[in-house]
Design goal:
The structure is a single chain. The chain has 412 residues and is α/β, with parallel strands linked by helices. The protein has a domain of 204 residues: Rossmann fold, CATH 3.40.50. The protein is 40% helix and 16% strand. It has a six-stranded mixed sheet, sandwiched between helices. Strands 8-7-6-9 form a four-stranded parallel sheet, with helices on both faces. Helix 5 links the parallel strand 6 and strand 7. The longest helix is centred in the middle third of the chain and has 15 residues. The N and C termini lie far apart (62 Å). The mean pLDDT is 95. The chain binds pyridoxal-5'-phosphate and zinc ion.
Length: 412
């Protein structure tokens, strides 16, 4: 890889050759891929980029893959960035955009990391990939592995929603539903990976995965014609996504493609916010209970806290916690004003933006991008519980008229 210098431990600074199956540093710290920005500057231009296929692989100069490694088969990335005029106005923001990453092939942002894992597993010559996941890393790995002809072993906590489990079973993964929380699920996956030597897709362990996730911010910048917003809001669990988002922005800044960096807005659930608590109290993070219906971010022991905390601090970021009620209200609000259906963790970023607007932290002078990280069809049970049931009627127009009148429904 001509564009990569090495991988460097974020804790002790030790450097490692960027081999395909790198994991964590000997000190336990997480590794970060370091690029040769002079080389990237020389080889990549905005014009070159504009002409390329619309997938996450379009900016290979900023990705840690060999030139000979093929693009993965599923179309991951280049999800739409919508300007949400009505929602922005309703919240009192200057401008608001929604990046709908639920439109990836297995319907979450995790596809970006899983496609990277598949590419690196192929470079490593591995035939089997494994991970533990709250659900989306699992289903995206199973799908991207299936498309590339690799086998997968997937560990999920027993509370994983049915939609995600259905995806896993359909993609033919070997699925282990662990009777315990996410932390216990992660621990069992680690033991199994150590025993059988499978390729490890656990995001905080494998330093390449947040490089895949960073493609979301590379795209946002390009879709905004390199004019960055003031803020970028995203939901946070393990912390790999927000760390990846920040890495992508810093990459673009380093090669001179953008000339300002947004402030990150880290949004977590009131019932599980160890990373936001560490920022708010300026203390090392401490484990928390996993007490939220936003299953994808119910992470009491964040695996990538180091990188996430660094990203939030470096960006002069804002942290905000939202209740499950606020999350489900944001789901409905995105649905009714934008036609975007996100899963609970997927809309948590937007719930945070809404709350910051109500608190007067954000307002008419601010521009914001909010990333919807997963699709609502993954968890229909919670959506139905919150949004209610449809009108139920036989084939009878009089009863229909009556039902409309009872609800005061305008029909023209
Ligand atoms: C995984 C996930 C997140 C959070 O990403 P982390 O890297 O765990 O912080 C947010 N939303 C959805 C839908 C996810 O699947
Ligand atoms: Zn180290």
């Amino acid at each position: 890889m001509k564009n990569v210098i090495h991988a460097k431990c974020v804790r002790c600074g030790k450097t490692y050759e960027a081999t395909p199956n790198l994991t964590t540093c000997a000190c336990g710290g997480i590794l970060d891929v370091v690029y040769d920005y002079d080389y990237v500057k020389k080889t990549l231009t905005k014009e070159k980029l504009a002409a390329r296929p619309r997938t996450m692989w379009r900016c290979r100069e900023l990705l840690p893959v060999e030139e000979t490694t093929p693009d993965t088969p599923l179309r991951v990335g280049w999800s739409p960035l919508y300007e949400a005029q009505r929602l922005g106005a309703q919240l009192g923001l200057g401008r608001l955009w929604i990046k709908d990453d639920g439109q990836n092939p297995t319907a979450s942002l995790k596809d970006r990391a899983s496609a990277m894992a598949v590419a690196k597993a192929q470079e490593a010559g591995a035939r089997i990939i494994a991970c533990s996941s709250t659900g989306n890393a699992a289903s995206s790995l199973a799908g991207n592995a299936a498309a590339a002809g690799l086998r997968s072993f997937i560990f999920v906590p027993e509370r994983a929603p049915k939609g995600k489990v259905a995806q896993l079973m359909t993609f033919g993964a070997n699925v282990i539903s662990v009777q315990g929380n996410y932390e216990e699920t992660f621990a069992l996956s680690k033991k199994a990976i150590d025993k059988w030597g499978w390729y490890n897709r656990n995001a905080a362990i494998n330093p390449y995965l947040s490089e895949g996730k960073k493609t979301v911010s590379l795209e946002i910048a390009e879709q905004l014609n390199w004019q960055m917003p003031d803020y970028l809001a995203i939901s946070v669990g393990d912390g790999c996504t927000i760390a990846g988002v920040w890495k992508g922005l810093k990459d673009l800044y380093a090669i001179g493609f953008i000339d300002s960096l947004p402030r990150l807005i880290s949004v977590q659930a009131e019932g599980c916010h160890p990373i936001n608590r560490a920022i708010a109290e300026n203390q090392p993070w401490q484990p928390m209970e996993e007490n939220t219906l936003a299953d994808s971010i119910a992470v009491g022991v964040p695996r990538n806290a180091d990188k996430a905390l660094m990203a939030i601090r470096e960006s002069n970021g804002i942290v905000v916690n939202v209740t499950d009620e606020e999350i489900m209200a944001a789901q409905k609000l995105l649905g009714t004003t934008c036609g975007v259906f996100g899963e609970p963790a997927g809309v948590t970023g937007t719930a945070g933006v809404k709350k910051l607007c109500a608190q007067g932290v954000l307002g008419a002078q601010d521009t914001v991008v909010s990333v919807v990280t997963g699709n609502g069809l993954k968890d229909v049970a919670n959506a139905i519980r919150f949004c209610g049931e449809p009108m139920k009627l036989p084939n009878d127009l009089d009863l229909l008229i009556e039902a409309f009148e009872r609800r005061g429904l305008k029909t023209e």
